[in-house]
Specification:
five-stranded antiparallel beta sheet; single chain; about 190 residues; three-stranded antiparallel beta sheet; 8 strands
């Protein structure tokens, strides 16, 4: 085994290691959340193996693009950014809306800010905002490690994850909502 490829060239070994990383923060996650939905791989390009990202071509084929990263970064990329897979594989069972002190930024309005509890375990924050002609939403899964912290430290980490923008819920909003604290198990 080389230093760059400590688990050889079998992609399944890297998926297993990335899954271990993912399970630390999302204990209810399943391996297929990575295995079935990744655009990363290991390919022999020229005479050397490389970590690659696959990009779809117009003809439907996949083109590997070499990545200039090490094994640690490759595992991190495999394990992170899985909000869609985490949400799809773990439906919401209960929610609480969080009131915001500021719901407008220019012509954009905060429509929904909600904390969600999921069937298989875990929590997420769901934020939706828009204006008269556009909008968007995002789900942020809260790592299990955050819940091992005292409330004040939890808020610090949470607000790094779900940054309070011009119309997002801020620290004071969360501190002034005792039902949210209780909903999160504090």
């Amino acid at each position: 085994m080389s230093k760059k490829f400590p688990y050889g060239h079998d992609m399944n070994a890297y998926i297993d290691k990335a899954f271990e990383l993912m399970k630390a923060d999302f204990p209810w996650a399943t391996r297929d959340m990575i295995a079935d939905n990744t655009n990363l791989g290991i390919e022999k390009i020229g005479c050397r193996y490389q970590y690659v990202a696959y990009h779809s071509q117009y003809d439907g084929s996949l083109k590997p693009e070499p990545l200039k990263i090490d094994c640690e970064e490759f595992l991190h990329r495999l394990a992170s950014g899985r909000d869609y897979e985490l949400g799809h594989g773990n439906p919401v069972k209960e929610t609480i809306d969080v009131p915001a002190s500021c719901t407008c930024s220019g012509d954009w309005f905060l429509e929904i800010y909600r904390i969600q509890k999921h069937e298989l375990g875990g929590y997420s924050a769901y934020v939706q905002a828009g204006n008269r002609s556009a909008g968007g939403s995002r789900t942020f899964f809260i790592p299990a490690s955050f819940f091992k912290l005292p409330w004040e430290e939890f808020l610090d980490k949470y607000l790094e994850l779900v940054s309070p923008g011009p119309f997002y819920v801020g620290r004071k909003d969360l501190e002034n909502a005792p039902a949210v604290k209780e909903f999160l198990g504090y």
